[in-house]
# Entry
Amino acid sequence: MTVQPGRRERKKAATRQKIADTALRLFLERGYDAVGIRDVAAEADVAVTTLFSHFASKEALVFEQDEDFEQRLTQAATDRAPHEPLVPALRREVHALVRHCTADGAAPVWRLIEESPALREYEESMRLRHAESLATAIAAAPDLPQTTTACRALARFVIDAYSLAREAADPEAAVDEIFRMIEAAWEVTRPARRA
# Structure
């Protein structure tokens, strides 16, 4: 049974979403560098301290689903059904993330990110953090006796697959193509099974 969030949690989530939506609208209208934190707070009708209680930085306003994406990736590794292979579980999650990030209306956001060195740098650091979290989750799985290096490499490949597919002409086909290579590489690292 799923427990529904209480009133306070719903109110916090609504405030967070309002701030993120306001920031994105302002960034798209005026340009990322032309909008300050105080502008976002004023437009969202919240205090600057309230904004910072929800978002650690101006860049984080653009990547407001960062933590959710990271959690979804790690859960794809840790919450698999017993005996479900890792790579197909990760492929399914990357497909879902790519569909979300290539949906109608996403192109202006990606243009905004590409035009801003600060946002590109933030995205790169976010990708590295996601890769480390995913590597830790893979390494902790008892059914995956792999070296730390293999776990870290797989995690980096998965994160890069998401980025490469998002930019491809056919993102869905790109995910499948990349994951065929990932799966082949992962299989090579598996310890030999005893007969």
Observations:
- The longest helix spans residues 7-30.
- The mean pLDDT is 88.
- The chain has ten helices and no strands.
